[in-house]
Design goal:
mainly alpha; two-stranded antiparallel ribbon; about 45% helix; DUF1553; electron transfer activity; Cyt_c-like_dom_sf
Length: about 850
Amino acid sequence: MRHILSLALLALALALAPARAADPKVSFARDVLPILSDACFQCHGPDAKARKADLRLDTKDAALRKKDPVIVPGKSRESELIRRLVTGDADEVMPPPRSKKTLTAKQIDTLKTWVDQGADWGKHWAFEKVERPAVPSVANPKFVVRNPIDAFVLAKLDREGLAPNTEAAKQTLIRRVTLELTGLPPTPKEVADFLADQSPDAYEKVVDRLLASPRYGERMAWEWLDAARYADSNGYQGDGERTMWPWRDWVVRALNADMPFDQFTVWQLAGDQLPNATTEQKLATGFLRNHMINGEGGRIAEENRIDYVMDMAETTGTVWLGLTFNCCRCHDHKFDPLAQKEYYGLFAFFNQTAVNGGGGNPQTAPVVELRTPEDDAKLKDVGEKIAATSGKLDALEAILFSREKGKPASDAVKVKDVPKEIKDALARRPTDRSRDQLGKLEKQFAPREQTYGELLADLSRYVGTRDDLNRKVPRVMVMEDQSTPRDTFLLTKGLYNKPADKVSAVVPAVLGGLPAGVPRNRLALARWLVSPDNPLTARVTVNRYWQQVFGTGLVKTVEDFGVQGERPVNQELLDWLATEFVNPTAATGPAPAAWSVKHLLRLIVTSSAYRQSSKVTPVLAERDPLNRLLARGPRSRMPSWMIRDQALAASGLLVGTMGGVGVNGYQPSGVWEEATFGQKRYTQDHGDALYRRSLYTFWRRIIAPTEFFDTATRQTCTVKQVRTNTPLQALATLNDTTYVEAARALAGRVLAATPDDAGRIAQATRLVIARDPTPEETQILLAGLKRLRSQYAADPAAAKKLLAVGESKRDEKLDPVDQAAFTALCTIILNLDEALTKE
């Protein structure tokens, strides 16, 4: 009753209150659409099947209909929409009580004011064409406006009554940006050189050096592999191994070369459809084939195929458009203007693949074979040997097994009574026989015909070499459309065996159509995605890079730019970045190329906004706890792969070899076996493979590498970064073999560097956190070292056990008690909050 009475009083107040001319203009996109989306679209939105009362509030024509109107522009007191929001009648109030949705008095007042102001309609902000906003003119004596990013940030802070932080210390800056752009910590020499460089552009020179480093591509590839659902196995119970790693290496090369993002897009979605497509362009389309493959028994091939195509369409929708297309498999989208028919229109672009969905072959055609010149030379050599030996066998078999001029076959060799498989082998030319067939022939005849047996053995050996070489040639699954076009149908409830209306390849109408006259293929789709007229791709892309740098995107819902997603915290900045990405004009160094990711990142990391101290004041903690307004520099937990790479780099163990097949590092026994019912057994690599960058770790899809945490599953497209901080993570960073061994190697490194303990501690902190310890920190660490020395001196067996962790060899000249004590101390340094954080 109290609830009904409150609504009745509110209704009376609204009815009696005249329209207030002084009210600020209500924005449909900013103020009204989010309310309608949250409270109304479930029943009165795009999804026709879920729509109630034949009322639609997501389009202008339907919401402002003339017949039986629910909104009367300029007259909220005559608008049924407003009356239903404030009525005390439980049978009429909207949203209905059973929906568990309610509107606040402020939201109702916003809708009323909007109606009274004329109910001006508009588009969702993300579907509007991107226009370059004017750069604000602002100034702050403590904040240098180095590029337009700073102007937008400072203008926003001024409006919010907040002041920016001062610049971070130089040691903090070089560690922050080196981790940002390479995923590795700076070396002590790089830090010292930066501290010594007093030139005005010292920091910019560091940034340019890092952008030119080959480690840049390795670092930037990680998030792209998450989005591309890259893995080294198929997934599902069978989880067969695949050879997609050459595609991963192509990504690294493309990023290092700063391939323009529009070209990066076109190659991955449609490289095979470019004129005279090269092997590299075809290889790039492996992006679409990174989906899981289901080869389980009893699985229907067409059902698999449909799943694969859906995955391609939904991944494309997430990565380039930031829209939740998967919601449209079974029905029209409940919130965004995306129809089920449009989902299958996007699906149709990928539905021409020749893959039929049968079996679980992790190298299902079409594939590209990537032979090296060395492979070709070896195959040519063994091919010549096979041809020569086969010729000799041909000649000998003509004598042994044929009747020429009435001469009977040799009495030594009879084929009349030999088995169905020996005769079959003899019926083939020697060059066409398998190694198994050659072996059976050798076993059958070699005891009686020595020369014949020797030739069979030679040919078997050569065929084995050839087969081994071919087996090792990477075959990467790529895209290729079948010659006969395949019809596409809307699938009822998304079921492969419930086709309904036939559909053609189209893009969502709300985003505009494809240019007239172009073929409806993947190439046209890819070019449309990176067209300057597309309102989403540039926004979505720069937002993900912003998330990568600052921890949270300007739109927090990086995967959802629809009406249920977050509105940008600073839309002017987002739109400026998007236009600058596509059509760069900023005078910041050499003329940048269009769609240059390096240019975008350089702008971000050289801005004053990025260079601020990350110190949190009480005011900032209360007003902006998540740092969305950027009154301080970024500070976030490093991803687990970066923490591992840092430990290896600081210890000196890191092996910088780039590319190649995935490696198996340290892992507890039985993990693969448990996850696969014993079908997959883990075999650890040795030597340099143990110390490669995390990017090159073999990724089994059903059980990710155990040394990582907070990582994507790589089963579906993932673009939202997750960072947590739990005690369970310390179990890895304190006890995992990689980290203990890294601490031991780091201890050996600093013990050899200087004779005094304080100097050794300083060197360890320089290697890990890029700065010297404070006097107080030094005293604490010296006291800890003293305790550790006493413990290991009293228990030399424990020292020996600790120093035996890992396969790298320790310097036997070092005192074991000293090295064990420093190993434990270095473990502490590697686990400092400052060491695990990019700040």
